[in-house]
Amino acid sequence: MVRLSETARDERAEERRGQILKAALVVFSQRGFHGATIREIASAAGLAEGTIYLYFPSKQEVLRGVFALIAEEAFAASVGGDFSGGDDEAFLRRFLEGRITSLSKHAAFLRLSVHEADLQEDLRQEFYARLCEPFVVQFERYLQARIAEGAFRPVNTALTATMYFRMLMSHIVVQHVLTVDATAAQRAGEDYLGTMVSLMLYGLAVRPASAPPRDAL
């Protein structure tokens, strides 16, 4: 009998967990949390129903794992995007667009989660925290660096980062989850992101005109 090393067993278990969560994401997106069953998740994963319980003791725990999966994807979408003294507008567009693209892929799942308003409160709070905290930490670090460099005025960075996260989530919910006007959402997405970045950097104040080149004086 071939014995797996502890590392190999851990890797196999992690792979199996990922297999289950990806299948659960599909089933929850189609059926909702209340409509989905462990049997359907097992079938979508190509596993026996009992195998699911080896990794997740309940459907609630499967849902918690799906929340973590989506949050990790959203975080990964902006990893490596630290500001390095270049263009603030370009950095912010990349930072926000990565989150929007990542989360909008799961619009069907998010739509059903919003619809099922009686979803357990602790799970909804956990999902929000998983999405919010990494964004706030990264964005606050960026704000603090730019304040220290004298580029931005001093602000409450934690509050400001949280407000921008809520602005981002409002956009995702309205345009990609509720899809009030899908055609308008697709047409206006680029303009919306550009306007959001502009408001972040300049507010509503008139921007001063750039000084003419010295040799033009």
Supply the CATH class of the largest domain: Mainly Alpha
| Corresponding CATH architecture of the largest domain | Orthogonal Bundle
Mean pLDDT, nearest integer?
A: 83
- Terminal-residue CA separation: 85 Å
Structural class: mainly alpha
Number of domains: 2
Weakly predicted, low-confidence segments: none
Tell me the helix content: over 70%
β-strand amount? under 5%
- Based on Cα principal axes, name the global outline: elongated
CATH superfamily name of the largest domain?
Answer: Tetracycline Repressor, domain 2
SSE topology string: HHHHHHHHH
**Largest sheet: number of strands, sense, barrel closure:** none
Oligomer: single chain
CATH topology of the largest domain, by name, is Tetracycline Repressor, domain 2
Strand element count: 0
Query: What radius of gyration results from the CA coordinates?
Result: 22 Å
User: What's the total helix number?
Assistant: 9
Characterization of this structure:
This protein has 2 domains: about 5-55, Orthogonal Bundle (Arc Repressor Mutant, subunit A), CATH 1.10.10; about 65-200, Tetracycline Repressor, domain 2, CATH 1.10.357.10. About 75% of the residues lie in helices and about 0% in strands. The chain has 9 helices and no strands. The protein is elongated and about 65 Å long.
